[in-house]
TrEMBL record:
Mg(2+) binds at residues 8, 10, 179. The gene is Phospho2. Its cofactor is Mg(2+). InterPro entries: HAD-like_sf, HAD_hydro_PyrdxlP_Pase-like, HAD_sf, Pase_PHOSPHO-typ. This is PHOP2 phosphatase. The active site is at 8 (nucleophile), 10 (proton donor). Pfam families: Put_Phosphatase (PF06888). Belongs to the HAD-like hydrolase superfamily. PHOSPHO family. GO terms for molecular function: metal ion binding; phosphatase activity.
Amino acid sequence: MKFLLVFDFDHTIIDENSDTWIVRCAPERKLPNGLRDSYQPGHWTEYMGRVFVYLGDNGVKEDEMKRTMTTIPFTAGMIDLLGFIGENKELFDCIIVSDSNTVFIDWILKAADFHKVFDEVFTNPAAFSSTGYLTVQHFHAHHCAKCPKNLCKRKALKEFLDKQLERGVSYTQIIYIGDGGNDLCPVMFLKKNDIAMPRQGYTLEKRISQLAQSRSPVQCSVLVWSSAIDIMSYLKLLIKE
């Protein structure tokens, strides 16, 4: 009996958006208007690439970025929740599917000593170039019209589940914990026995309730959370059963 926990990262594990937090490293903690206005819907990764070039051009180094990123607060109750999951790893497999990047997530999880809680992280690959600039790439290519160009979370989740099946691992229940519009696609892939846990007041919760109103509700059960303690309470009940 094993459960799969799928976490988004920004505004779910951490209480901020890691990509916008990095702007604190910029001169006067802001980006020039021309750069800010260059974002096009569905092309966030390309936009962040330009942000990283701007930071590099302004002499922002890796250690300063790392220091800044590790000051992001975790969501209320999240430290307790991740501690609890870490103590019960025989029952829970745990993955992150995020539109952030490998460098940011790695820094934040390692600084808080939570990297061992997660079995895999699916996010945009990032690295520092020989000139010290942070570069970011698309996670994968996909054909999903609903998702941003660089990442369809449903595809990432499905491929992980297929690989696990090949290894002989199947899950009693999938619990998907997220907040954003790009979490709807994987939530719609979940089955009747699974649980979607949207963060209260965020886009995912609103989208799920819009679907219910238009009489095409998601198949899975829905449990809204405002603190990660709510998620922990549910997991404790699961274990007791």
